[in-house]
Amino acid sequence: MFKSIELSSLVTLVLVVLGLFAYSFSGAQNWAAPSATPPGGNTLAPINVGTDVQVKQGNLGVNVLATAPTTGQVWSRQYCDENGANCFTASQVAGGGGTATTTLDLVNGLHSSQQCRNLGGQVVTSSGASFCRFDGASCPTGWIQYENWRTTAANTCRHTFNDPLSGSRSCAPCTTGSNPWSNTAVATCNYQGSSYYRNADGDRYLICGGLGGGSFTCNATINQVGCY
After folding, report:
1. What is the DSSP secondary structure assignment for residue 186, as one 8-state letter?
2. Contact between residue 87 and residue 80 where contact means Cβ atoms under 8 Å apart
3. Are residues 155 and 219 in contact, defined by beta-carbon separation less than 8 angstroms?
4. Exposed end of the chain (fewer CB within 10 Å): N or C?
5. Does the predicted TM-score (pTM) go above 0.85?
6. How far apart are CA 188 and CA 186, in angstroms?
């Protein structure tokens, strides 16, 4: 009986040893040699609260990025919108080196000289007030017209009536004045609308102004405008 128990224990021990050997051999088959001499090839350090400088190769997305209240700084070669487009260098944003700050130096403190130049405008000054001169008839989105500063060109207006019997007919036109760059209201002129009437004999006559023709205002063409 004792020999039977000893034999059974021996068989169990042998099976356990063989199982451990097979497991070890399986693990050895999956083992790979180091890819570099230590300490090379180590797992990259996670972002942590330590004092060491850390450089991340990929993009980093955060909801809010806060710096220390008195010593915090944000460094960047370019400053872009939320889509990574419309990027500007530090000198374009601030008009100086990386330590400069954007100064809203245009009249009423809504925009800066650099923002004016970034949009293709030119900074001008009148009576101590600096503002931006843009080409075109209106200010860019987010900018406001400054007083009546603008450049205008003469414009000719005429009202034409298409007579189905005699063709296109019109009354006398009017032509506005023009103004160089100045704080001046837009020049205007008035011109009459054209219509017609039919007499008892069926004849058709051109009417300028009254009886349905009306009067209209013609504005000079705005080529430049002052904004802040």
Report:
1. P
2. yes
3. yes
4. N
5. no
6. 6
Instruction: Show pLDDT as tens, one digit a residue, over the chain (228 residues).
Output: 545 556 666 667 777 777 776 666 565 556 677 777 777 777 777 888 787 888 877 788 887 778 777 777 777 777 776 667 667 776 666 554 444 456 899 999 999 999 999 999 999 999 999 999 999 999 999 999 999 999 999 999 988 877 666 667 778 899 999 999 999 999 999 998 877 666 666 666 667 775 556 788 999 999 999 999
Query: Looking at 52-166, which runs of residues are DSSP E strands?
Result: 78-79, 88-89, 122-126, 129-135, 145-153, 156-157, 160-163
* DSSP tag of 111: S
Identity (one letter) of the amino acid at 58? G
> Sheet of 221-227: strands edge to edge?
122-126, 129-135, 221-227, 145-153, 179-183
Residue with tokens 């007919």: 169
Rounded Cα gap, residues 161 and 82, in angstroms: 53
